[in-house]
Amino acid sequence: MNTISDVRNLFPILNQKVNGKPLIYFDNAATSQKPKQVIEAIENYYSQYNSNIHRGAHYLANLATEAYEHSRQVIAQYLNAETQEINFVRGTTEGINLVAQTYGKANVKAGDEIIVSAMEHHSNIVPWQMLCEEKGATLKVVPIFDSGDLDMEAYEKLLSAKTKIVAVTYISNALGTVNPVQEIIAKAHEVGAVVLVDAAQAVQHKKIDVKALDVDFLAFSGHKVFGPTGIGILYGKRELLEAMPPYMGGGEMIDNVTFEKTTFNKIPYKFEAGTPHIEGGIVLGKAIEFVQEIGLDFIAEKEAELLHYGTQKLSAIDGLRFVGTAQEKCSVISFLVKDIHPYDIGTLLDKQGIAIRTGHHCCQPLMKRLQIEGTCRASFAFYNTAEEIDVFAKALEKSIAMLS
Ligand code: 7TS
Fold it and tell me: Is 1 exposed, middle or buried (0-12, 13-18, 19+ CB in 10 A)?
């Protein structure tokens, strides 16, 4: 599996025409495409061993339970976590809300502060804002430079004994900025705050070792890491998860129920009420195994080449300006051209078979900070090619000519 066509053949969806042109999929930050082994794992589950897990003492239920729990182990090893620290959730959004509604409710009081950054996705802003409103706490925002780099000096100044939670994205979906999370975590710990890292844009690009990072909570979505939608992971340190109240009540999360009092199950089941997304959980493990087979080094190398080439190619386009030029970036290129509305560019590119994202990318406060309404965003995965970037650059020039 060495050539790029070998890699691309693993992703059946890539081999098709859109509007009469070969599909060029540059919307990987929104969701990644799925390799054959992930698609086959979904079919295998439903055609061979679909069954409810944990509760049924029969053959199929045991197979499904084993596969689900095996997946938890695969994911734990991938992150260098303990198996019981891996909670299946619906995605990054649910993971963050879970922490806000459990750890947050139990530990944040009036007068406390929660710190987020100016480049957060709405899902790492709104849950904290809701918590702050409920508790009378204050949301503080780490500013960024125009480049899209975090202002680390300002961050240090914001930290104090009042800081209870720091919630920050590892990689910005809108700008591609890679944040110095290790340093952010260490500084937060100095004032006794816990840190949640939003790894929605990181886990598919970078090796993450939760122990080395010493991160308290980390959330990601399966669908951005070549797995299904509707499934994701919340990692939490064991001692924090054990001390936290439950999130949702229901089956599976209990130890014993009477009308007088309910005792709760041990972690991670305490946070997994109801029948979960069984197929999703199993297949997310397959997606992580897929990433391990391909190798994060290979992925990082390919994506760095694409980022470099794409940046070079687009800089030659008259009137184009990049939004997000941080020192360390991942394979996301956000840009604007003259005063053309991003949506118009996106629509014309789509007619040429090219999928990019336009708009505020669920980062309205970031767009306000940059005094823009939105951007055009091309985000690459390791299965994209320099040839696709060539076609994209030509199509972009053609679109600009039509819109100017
Ligand atoms: N955090 C970041 C940094 C994200 O990029 C996203 C999704 C989320 C959280 C939410 O993830 P979800 O799976 O729970 O929805 N970002 C994008 C995007 O950039 N385009 O579409 C979704």
Answer: exposed
